[in-house]
RNA-binding transcriptional accessory protein (Cylindrospermopsis raciborskii CS-506_A), 133 residues
Amino acid sequence: MISISQRIAQELNVAESQTRAAIELLDGGATVPFIARYRKEATGSLDDTQLRTLEERLTYLRELEDRRKAVLQSIDEQGKLDAPLRKQIEEADTKARLEDLYLPYKPKRRTKAQIAREAGLGPLAEQLLTAPQ
């Protein structure tokens, strides 16, 4: 699996060293206009358009990695994670693809009615509905 900086470098057709330098500057709190104007030597003359694209892709790919970890952990806790599924999840390149893979394993939301039934209130509700006023 390739790193985030390698992937962004491929997408922007620039050297990985340029993307790594830009990522370090962005993580350090520098803004895109600042980097484009005052840190061209560090980023290998990336322009503001490339830097903005890099910033957007960096955010997206980091969110994707965080979600991937959460999905893997959730499926593993259910005891349903096998090698082919893990491979598919690790190779998912978009959030939509990742969510499509996770959908069959996603825990169902419990409604208030389901919680009441689990607490044993089903017969009481039936009695209240059928009893005359």
Notes: The CA atoms of residues 71 and 132 lie 49 Å apart. The chain has a mean pLDDT of 92. The chain is about 70% helix and 0% strand. Residues 4-130 form a domain with the Arc Repressor Mutant, subunit A fold (CATH 1.10.10.650).
